[in-house]
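Section 5: illustrative case.
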């Protein structure tokens, strides 16, 4: 018996010539082996865990083996603190503003028949945000008196704020 194994992912025609011999005489015949194409699943490359700073976005170019060169549809499932979008094979993930922590990201590549998935952890490192001083209106007092100004502010990262003031040489 003759066993013919085409190259991996090959489709098309293979010309085969068979010869038989009794030592003196021979006969030969040719035939065509038609190898039909089949849809091969896409293979999404592993994605290492990623780290970004708070209030920054992740941009990651996905690598997918697609021997059939058919259209690939990407999708991502992310935790509630993230927003994910795609542009071609580039994944963009933005964390919620002022949020830090870690979350799971599941990325899928789908060719209309087969699905390939990879997951990774996205860690968002905290960044010290500047405090915000509450608005202080211009003040007015009579000569030879003093004024008390209520100071307040907000810091998303801290409950303890320290205030300082500089005044010109008239006070």
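Designed sequence:
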């Amino acid at each position: 018996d003759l066993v013919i194994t085409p190259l991996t992912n090959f489709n098309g025609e293979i010309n085969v010539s068979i010869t038989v011999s009794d030592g003196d005489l021979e006969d030969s015949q040719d035939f065509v082996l038609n190898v039909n194409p089949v849809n091969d699943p896409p293979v999404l490359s592993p994605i290492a865990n990623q780290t970004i700073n708070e209030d920054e976005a992740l941009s990651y170019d996905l690598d997918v083996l697609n021997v059939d060169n058919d259209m690939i549809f990407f999708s991502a499932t992310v935790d509630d603190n993230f927003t994910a979008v795609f542009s071609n094979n580039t994944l963009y993930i933005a964390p919620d503003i002022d949020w830090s922590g870690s979350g799971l990201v599941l990325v899928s590549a789908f060719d209309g028949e087969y699905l390939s998935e990879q997951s990774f952890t996205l860690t968002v490192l905290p960044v010290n945000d500047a405090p915000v001083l509450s608005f202080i209106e211009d003040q007015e007092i009579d000569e030879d008196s003093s004024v008390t100004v209520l100071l307040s502010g907000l810091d998303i990262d801290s409950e303890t704020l320290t205030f300082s003031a500089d005044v010109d040489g008239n006070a």
